[in-house]
Design a protein that fits this description.
Length: 250
């Protein structure tokens, strides 16, 4: 039990009640894969972030019901931009900066993938339906875990290794109105929908587990092979960091 990885998960903030909260699926998926989830409150203070991350082995950036403030990638707000939660943006970006400094594995899901991209200097499509010609449906309804569209997979990538070598494409669920426009530094797009929307990004540096997916594997980890593989692989990468820093015989 001594080497079970502790993985930080940033929370959400209800602007009306001022309560931090998080959907249970992220924590349940991490626990099922062998990790201890640690919820990170949205307190954008350098000392707090450094103190909590020093005892963590990885970071999961979850989805959100807010949008990243376009100020972070040098754009004015589009009319279809959703609500912005400053504490969410600030905390996620500070967590990513500290995770980079500590070389922690990172998994970004939906909004978390977009935050990851923006943290590396990338930009976002603020509203797919109004800014992209002939898009497919990216905002799926209930049941939320149902796979609704296909993505094309770049060979020789983390995504391909998880989906199965030579798989070429796979179906995923979809719950987003924004997407990546320009890819950030030291990141590469590795999965796309048929309308050209980027669905997966990975770190281009060797020996780095930094993965962002636009879909929601936490909704289907117990019913979909790729979703389970994503969490298993991420937790394994975090576990390997635990073993590297554990003392002999620890």
């Amino acid at each position: 039990m001594a080497n079970i990885p502790r993985i930080g998960v940033t929370m959400r903030l209800d602007l009306e009640t001022r309560r931090f909260y998080l959907g249970r699926d992220y924590s349940e998926a991490l626990e099922a894969a062998g990790a201890v989830p640690v919820h990170i409150a949205l307190i954008p203070k350098t000392e707090y972030i450094a103190e909590i991350l020093k005892d963590l082995d990885g970071i999961l950036l979850p989805g959100s019901d807010s949008d990243v403030d376009p100020e972070y990638y040098g754009e004015d707000p589009h009319p279809k931009l959703g609500r912005v939660v400053p504490e969410k943006d600030q905390t996620d970006l500070m967590v990513l900066a500290e995770a980079e400094r500590l070389d922690l594995p990172v998994l970004g899901i939906c909004f978390g993938m977009q935050s990851l991209n923006v943290s590396r200097g990338g930009s976002l499509i603020q509203d797919i339906a109004s800014q992209i010609d002939d898009p497919i449906k990216h905002e799926q309804g209930i049941p939320r875990e149902r796979n609704s569209h296909s993505i094309r997979i770049e060979p020789g990538t983390i995504l391909e290794s998880l989906a199965g070598k030579g798989s070429g494409q796979v179906k995923v669920n979809s719950h987003h109105h924004q997407a990546i426009k320009t890819v950030g530094k030291e990141l590469s797009a590795t999965g796309w929908t048929n309308d050209g929307i980027i669905e997966c990004i990975e770190d281009t540096r060797d020996n780095r587990f930094v993965l962002g997916v636009q879909w929601h594997p936490e909704l289907s980890w117990n019913s979909d092979a790729l979703s389970k593989a994503i969490f298993d692989s991420f937790v394994r990468a975090c576990s390997e960091k635990v073993f590297k820093v554990s003392p002999p015989g620890g």
